[in-house]
Structures are given as structure tokens and as C-alpha cells.
Write a structure and sequence with these properties.
single chain; 786 residues; alpha+beta
Length: 786
């Protein structure tokens, strides 16, 4: 009996091969795409949720009210959280975290540029740290390493109680590995490889509320019985009593740790950032894809039921039982859904692996892990199977005349048209948005950065003892074949820049400014191929400096020529030095397009830390790399040469933008495909609705063009209404998305035109098969069908 029902169901599906195949493909692709989007969304929405107390932790940030505006820093001074737990009872601890780069020596092996976080002891009770071996640190020299670092440094050897010789800003120190912790997942803001004691580096920082330490994050751990508004009120009261004259300049503010990854624009900030609007869009897109997939599935099933109305009537007359109907409808739904879910599961499994390699994100976990994915797909299959089988059964309950009359009513047709129009509107919305995203990404790739990033290489000189040694290294590398020019600086042309206090006398008053600063040598401008607009470059061992155009405006000068020759005072540690402004360089992008170019000062100072060597090369090939490594080994035997290509550093800074843009464009194509399936189903339904009308028109001589026009008329109205709704909406929301970039493209008529053309093409393509099929209807068969 079971095999009989299965054969009947298979025969029913095989009678309508093209619609069934399209229904199968549409459901498979829509389901796969929606689940993949949900996996990405779940990764980002649960950001920092790995830490069980994330909602009880607050990050402290620092605002400085300067003459030229307010500056907001993610960093604090080393004493910003002192004594807070004694005054504010809801605060149970203060945890500081600062990243530092270390060189580690283990036997005859040397590991350079190791990523270490120096933390207070309270870190381990506030932030989830899962030990897989050993214990938490007890002594100042104790450290934890993650599993990846343990494997890289020790291989299969037990790392517990192994002593590592380290070199950092604190000098040299032996560190003992007392524990190994599980690698942090990719959706956590801080993912250190090594955890060390903050007391090691604390003495190196000034004890002053206004002395902001770059990269120093201060967290306030609470008992969970205070919200952010109340906490900030109590912080303001505390600092009013404790920082005295600095109160008008230094402002402290707390924000919930679990939401800080949404906060852009803070200086000295670290960790990946997300945009809430983008996540909302991805969520809406995923939900709508799955809803659209279901709507299209039921639309096509409805059309097939109507086409089978005569068969259903005959079976009813012959006395088919209710149980037999249930079984046949269940089998027919299973024949389409079971292969769709099976294929979708395989596609999801493969796609998740590819996405993880492309994004370096941990996506295949939880319900999407290899162990749970098929349970998830099985559960979803049962739910969808019962829904579709039940809906199909309801449609087949009535006799043929009931079915036909029910689904030919104006109201039902209007609802169907509305649902398809909604799909079409969202497809237009995302087509417009995807074109804007594509243009913005292209703009970021092609904009003039103010320097030439190609064939530019940077090397970190952590091991140098001073400026003289750095200059010796520079001269040696400049002599390598393939190196065109070399320069020394505190920071590379692209990346984090430090800040310093400057003062300038204007009229009778002295104005103080906090400006970005990079200590450079006389070859920095030429090596990076920057443009000097007025004046001249700095010279070696001279007290001259360069300003960018933003700095000229920040200092209050009306033109670049006016500022040349002016005197500025530069404060470095406990020393103040007078410099002469020798020239002005064109503004250049040392940060991403998310950030506005700020005032920048470039000056020479042999007392500063020249930790960056920049090389302008003829090309980057293996021969040059070998020569660089050989020369490096002469200065630092045993130490591995690590370098960065500026072009790659810029690409990495935009990695999230490119990835989210690619996901959005991919999802847009998916939604367009699903919408095409919806238009196909609607056209197929209209063609079947008008079967008798088409037969009459053919009988009186109507050709294919007239029939296509008749079927396509309602589709054209749906398309037009969708364009009129989607374009204004997408214009507004695309503008909101672009506001996250300080340098961006302008929305224009080309985006509107592209959207209209693609939507019209989409409608035309979806119309072809049902329209051509309808035009081939036999008039005699159509007229006597009912």
C-alpha cells in the first residue's frame, strides 16, 4: 500500500517536471542561503557573549576637552580605575588590559612579534578563560598561553612550568608558563595568545589622570545591580572629588562591554567593530528569504492543484478515503522537500567550511557544527513537511469546482499579487543597496591615498637600542639590490599614530593643541611618495617639521603659505623643543575611510623611538625576501624577519568591509533568484487562471505577442509599483549606511537606472517559460476543460 501511494505521488510530481524542478531548486537555494545568513548573523549578534559576565562588565573611556574640540579615547591612564570599588559598592573590581609585542627565546628558538596581553589578576574571574591544563597565575612572572601558541612553541612537549626568556618594553624577563587556555572564538573583542601580569609594565606609565596610555583598556567589573546611566552618574561624582583641576579637561565614561563592538570612532580603540544597521539588514534579508521561499513554494503548489482539479474530482467521485488523501499529499510533499533538505544540508556544510577559510571566523559551531547540523536539518524538514502537507491537503479537500472558484477569486489573487510584489520590492531595495556597496568598495580601492602604497614594505625594529643603530640598519637595507629607498619613523604611513602636545604663539597668546605626530627621518616623504604642497621637506638633525592640510586649519591659519616659517613647541616626555614649520604635505589617509583625516605633524627627533623601517622596493619577490632575511640575520641572529606590505595592511583593515559587502551582494543575488521564482510562480498561476481566455483569444487569431502581453500586464504593474516603493526607501537607507564612511560615493541617477533595468529584466526572464507555454495552449482543449 505504501509503495502504491509513493508511485502515485511520484507520478503526480513527474507530470509537471519543469514547475516541480523549479520549486525544488527555489526551495533548496532559498533555504541554504537563509541558513548561511543566519550563521553569520548569529556569529556577530553573539559577539563577546563567550564571556559569561559580559553584561556586568563596563569599559571605561576617556574624553579630553581640548581647545580645538573634544577627543574621545578608548584608552585610559593607568590610575583611571583606582579606588572606585571603595566608593561605588556595585563595582567589585578593576581590570586593565594592554597589548604588547614580545620577543620570546626558548632554547635555540626565537619567536618575534608575539601578541601578549598584560592584565590584572581580576581578569580571570571577570572574563571567561577556559583552562585545558595547569593553573591560573599566582606570581608576577607566571603566564598563560593559548592552545595554538602552546602547539607552535612547544609542539607535543608539555609546556607547564617551562621558562621562556622574553624581551619587551620592560627589558628582559623570564616568564614561566603555568597554564594553557582554550583559544578564544572569533566573535570576541580581545583574543590574546599570551596572558601576563599587568604589574610588569605598570611602572612604565605616568601616574596621572590626563596621561592616556595608548592601547590601555580599563574595565569595571560590577555585581550586575547597576545600569550604565547610574554608573556614569556615580563616576562623575567620584571624579569631581578626585581629579581637581583636570575635571574641565578629562571626562570619564563607561559603556557596557557586550555592546562596545558597535561603538566606532574612539581613538586608540582595538577589536573588530560592527554596524547595527548592517546586522538588522542581514536579519531582515535572511527572514525574508525564508518567508519568500515558503510563499513561492505554496504559490506553485496552488497552481499545480488547480491544474490537477479534474484528477482530484474523479478521485473524489470514486470515493478516495481521507487517509489516502493524507498519505498521497504527504508523499508528494516529501518527494520535493526531502531531496531539497538533503541537498541543502550538503551545500551548507561545504559552504560553512569555505566561509570559515575565507573569513577566518568560527561559524560551524552550535547548531551549525558538524555534529548538530543534520539534526537541525532533520527537525526543519519535519516542521516544513507537516506544514506543506497540511496546506496541500486543505487545498485538495474541495471538489474541482470549489478549488478553481476559490483560487480564482479576486481577493485571493490580490493577496498573491501583494506577496509577490513585496518580494519584488525588497529585491529592488537590495539591488539598489548592493550597487551602492559595490561602488563604495570600488571607491575605497581606487581613491588617491596621498601616497603610493604599491611596493611599499614595513619592518618593525623592536630590537634596536637607539636611533644610531636604527640608522645603521636603514643604510644596510638600502644597499640591498631591489630596494629603491628606505626611511625610519615611529609608525608606518598607514596604521596607528601617536599623539603629542604642541603649542604655537599667535599674536600675544600661546595656543595648546593635541595633535597626531609621527617621528620621521628626512627620507620618509620621498620613500612613501608623498606630496609637499608648499615649503620644503625636513632635514636630518634639524628642528623642522611638516604639517598636513588639516593641521594648518586646526592651528587657525587661512592658507598653507601663511604657516611656513612659524615656530611650534613640541613636548616630549619632560622636554620641550622649538621647531620651525618647513612645509605642508597633502592630506593622506593613515586610517580607513571610516575615519576623518586628522591634523598630523611630521618631525625629526633622534631622541624618539624609531621602531619602523619602510622600504620602497622595485618588486616583492622571493629573491628580495631572501636578501632581506640574510641582512636581518646579520643584525639579529636567530630572530625571524617579519614584515608587512602596506597594500596588504590596507586590505586587512578593510577586510570586514569587503567581507560584509560580498555577503550582502551574494544575499542580494539569492533574493533576486527567489524573487524570480516568485514571479515565475505568479505568472504560471495567471496563465492557468486565464487558460480559457487564452484559448478564446487564440481561436480568434491572437498571436504569441498578444498572449504574452496579456499575461505580462499584471506582472508589469507589480514591477512598476515595486520600483516606485523600493527606490526611495533604498535611497534613504543607503545614505544612512554610507554615513558610516567619512569618505564616500554620492548617490545618483545611475543607481536608480541600474535598479530599474535589473528589475525589468528579472520580470521579463521569469515571464518567458509560463508565457511561451500559455501561448501554445490548444484552444479546443482549453474551452472544454471546465
Amino acid at each position: 500500500m505504501m509503495s502504491t501511494h509513493f508511485r502515485f505521488a511520484l507520478r503526480s510530481v513527474s507530470r509537471f517536471k519543469i514547475p516541480s524542478l523549479i520549486n525544488f531548486l527555489g526551495f533548496t537555494v532559498g533555504l541554504t542561503g537563509a541558513i548561511l545568513l543566519f550563521s553569520i548573523l548569529l556569529h556577530d549578534v553573539s559577539y563577546d557573549g563567550y564571556h559569561q559576565r559580559s553584561d556586568e562588565i563596563y569599559r571605561l573611556s576617556t574624553g579630553l576637552n581640548m581647545r580645538d574640540g573634544k577627543r574621545h579615547f578608548a584608552s585610559t591612564s593607568v590610575m583611571s580605575g583606582d579606588n572606585l570599588s571603595e566608593v561605588i559598592p556595585e563595582i567589585t573590581d578593576r581590570v586593565r588590559l594592554r597589548y604588547q609585542t614580545l620577543s620570546l627565546t626558548l632554547g635555540d628558538k626565537i619567536f618575534s612579534n608575539e601578541n601578549a596581553a598584560f592584565v590584572d589578576s581580576g581578569y580571570y574571574s571577570a572574563f571567561t578563560t577556559e583552562l585545558v591544563a595547569g593553573q591560573f597565575p599566582k606570581e608576577q612572572s607566571d603566564i598563560l598561553i593559548n592552545e595554538s601558541t602552546s602547539e607552535r612553541l612547544f609542539g607535543t612537549t608539555d609546556p607547564i612550568n617551562q621558562v621562556i626568556s622574553s624581551q619587551g618594553i620592560y627589558g628582559s624577563k623570564g616568564l614561566t608558563v603555568v597554564g594553557v587556555f582554550k583559544d578564544y572564538p572569533t566573535n570576541v573583542s580581545f583574543r590574546p595568545n599570551i596572558l601576563a601580569d599587568f604589574q610588569i609594565i605598570e611602572p612604565l606609565s605616568n601616574k596621572n589622570y590626563g596621561s592616556i596610555v595608548p592601547g590601555l583598556n580599563t574595565f569595571l567589573v560590577t555585581n550586575g545591580r547597576i545600569d550604565v546611566e547610574e554608573l556614569n552618574e556615580k563616576l562623575n561624582e567620584f571624579y569631581k572629588e578626585n581629579i581637581g583641576d583636570l575635571l574641565d579637561i578629562v571626562v570619564h565614561e563607561a559603556e557596557v562591554y557586550s555592546g562596545m563592538h558597535y561603538h566606532r570612532g574612539l581613538e586608540f580603540d582595538i577589536g573588530q567593530k560592527h554596524d547595527k544597521n548592517t546586522l538588522w539588514v542581514i536579519a531582515v534579508l535572511a527572514i525574508f528569504i525564508i518567508i519568500s521561499t515558503l510563499i513561492n513554494f505554496f504559490n506553485m503548489q496552488t497552481a499545480l492543484v488547480i491544474q490537477r482539479s479534474k484528477e482530484l474530482s474523479i478521485k473524489q467521485v470514486l470515493g478516495i478515503t481521507w487517509a489516502s488523501k493524507i498519505k498521497q499529499q504527504a508523499y508528494e510533499s516529501m518527494i520535493v522537500l526531502l531531496p531539497a533538505f538533503a541537498l541543502s544540508g550538503v551545500m551548507i556544510s561545504v559552504a560553512l567550511n569555505e566561509l570559515e577559510q575565507y573569513t577566518n571566523l568560527t561559524l560551524a559551531n552550535g547548531w551549525f557544527s558538524a555534529d548538530n547540523l543534520w539534526w537541525l536539518m532533520g527537525g526543519l524538514f519535519l516542521i516544513f513537511w507537516m506544514i506543506t502537507a497540511g496546506a496541500s491537503l486543505l487545498m485538495s479537500r474541495w471538489n474541482s469546482h470549489s478549488v478553481v472558484s476559490n483560487y480564482k477569486t479576486k481577493g485571493q489573487s490580490s493577496v498573491r499579487t501583494f506577496l509577490i510584489g513585496l518580494q519584488f520590492t525588497l529585491a529592488g531595495f537590495f539591488i539598489f543597496s548592493a550597487s551602492v556597496i559595490s561602488d563604495q568598495l570600488t571607491y575605497m580601492e581606487t581613491i588617491d591615498l596621498g601616497y603610493e602604497q604599491d611596493d611599499l614594505m614595513t619592518i618593525t625594529l623592536n630590537q634596536v637600542s637607539g636611533y644610531d643603530q636604527a640608522r645603521t640598519i636603514k643604510t644596510a637595507f638600502e644597499g640591498i639590490a631591489g630596494v629603491k629607498k628606505a626611511s625610519l619613523s615611529t609608525a608606518p604611513i598607514f596604521g596607528w599614530q601617536s599623539k603629542a602636545n604642541f603649542s604655537i604663539r599667535k599674536d600675544t597668546a600661546v595656543e595648546n593643541h593635541l595633535l597626531n605626530v609621527n617621528l620621521i627621518d628626512a627620507d620618509f616623504v620621498e620613500t612613501n611618495e608623498m606630496l609637499v604642497l608648499v615649503g620644503e621637506n625636513v632635514v636630518e638633525n634639524g628642528r623642522k617639521l611638516l604639517l598636513n592640510e588639516k593641521a594648518v586649519k586646526a592651528l587657525g591659519f587661512s592658507s598653507n603659505d601663511e604657516v611656513v616659517g612659524q615656530k611650534m613647541m613640541y613636548s616630549m616626555r619632560d622636554t620641550t623643543m622649538e621647531y620651525t614649520i618647513s612645509g605642508v604635505v597633502a592630506d593622506y589617509h593613515y586610517a580607513t575611510m571610516h575615519d576623518m583625516i586628522e591634523p598630523m605633524v611630521l618631525l625629526t627627533n633622534e631622541l624618539g623611538g624609531y621602531f619602523n623601517l619602510t622600504l620602497r622596493t622595485e618588486s616583492n619577490d622571493d629573491q628580495l625576501t631572501t636578501a632581506l632575511e640574510k641582512k636581518w640575520d646579520q643584525f639579529f641572529p636567530g630572530y625571524l624577519l617579519t614584515y608587512n606590505l602596506v597594500e596588504e595592511s590596507i586590505d586587512n583593515a578593510y577586510r570586514q568591509d569587503y567581507q560584509k559587502g560580498a555577503f550582502y551582494q551574494w544575499a542580494t543575488l539569492l533574493l533576486v533568484f527567489v524573487s524570480a521564482m516568485g514571479i515565475f510562480g505568479l505568472t504560471y498561476f495567471y496563465a492557468d487562471q486565464k487558460r480559457k481566455e487564452i484559448g478564446i483569444r487564440k481561436a480568434i487569431g491572437a498571436g504569441m505577442q498578444q498572449i504574452l502581453a496579456q499575461i505580462g500586464k499584471p506582472i508589469a504593474w507589480v514591477c512598476l509599483a515595486s520600483v516606485l516603493i523600493s527606490v526611495p526607501l533604498s535611497f534613504y537607507f543607503s545614505g544612512e549606511w554610507l554615513s558610516g564612511y567619512q569618505y564616500r560615493v554620492t548617490l545618483g541617477a545611475e543607481h536608480v537606472a541600474l535598479t530599474v533595468i535589473l528589475m525589468a529584466s528579472l520580470a521579463a526572464l521569469a515571464l518567458i517559460y509560463p508565457g511561451v507555454k500559455a501561448s501554445k495552449i490548444n484552444p479546443v482543449e482549453a474551452l472544454r476543460q471546465d
